[in-house]
Amino acid sequence: MDPLVLEARFQRAVYKGDVGVLEGDFRLRYGERWAELWAAAEGAGEEDVRRADEHSDELCRLVESRIDDRELAALYAAYGRSLSLEGEVEAGLELLGRAGGLERLLRWGLVMHFSEDVVAAPPYLAKLLIKLGGEASRPRVNLDEELGPYLRDGGLMAFVEGLLAEEFDERLHRALYGEVPRTVRLGRAALYRPEVGLVVNPVLSAGELLEELLRVKRSRADALAKALSLHGEYEFSLDHRCGLQYISVDGTAEKSGVVAICPWASYSRKLWRRTRNMVLVLEGEPPPGVERPWFGVIYVRGGEAKVLKPREPSRLFEYVVDVLYSVGFSVAEEGA
């Protein structure tokens, strides 16, 4: 059987969804012959899937003959195959420096739509993908350079960290920073679009990006804890993703608790289970029109501290504010 017909019948057999998207693939891949091959693929089914696998070598040669940008094909084969939603693939290629590359992948048949939203390489191309992947050069992504311009935006960092850790809390974010970002671009490291979610550069993993964010966060939390000069045991907790200063002033429950020292907020569920006797310290400024929180929050920038009192009186919070005054912070108390 003609490899073009094999390819066309395979896609019609596996595709589920809006026929207009499938037709678009045919038009892109086959040009003027699309209607002819559409008709030739009528009635395709499981037997055509099996037949494509049996003729994988021919189909690999067909697809390889169409490729006119070997570097793009190799990048996708090496790093893009873990992405399957169309928006994810587009975002991943953009982060790899090949924005708009999805159309070429579809034209070659290196990927195809399996549904309206899902694009992937057909399984009969396994040998070709291994070959192409072996030709790819690993793009250099320096996280220090890519993240550097954004690390002082606490709301942005809290949002990205929450997504990476799969613990983003929109209610908390709005309470601490105001509006949730609509779109995010962290250089070539990651981007966020609401219709797709957070996509990390395919050269990296989400774990690598989160680890780098926490490395920076730990360094800054340690420095902030030193500047605050609070008494008690201090540690940076990877589980809570912030610094924790354990305080017991006079042995009473009212003046004992934990100060969470976070350059940007952590939405760790482990942290927020303990809000009854907790004070949160963040770097930055409170958002305009912020409401009085149900816990005490202190925003620190340089030698200034803006204090948002909790709704219920807290002796622990009062103690922390007293310490800020005593070590020379300029304190502006709000939420009285």
TrEMBL record:
Protein name per Swiss-Prot or TrEMBL: Uncharacterized protein
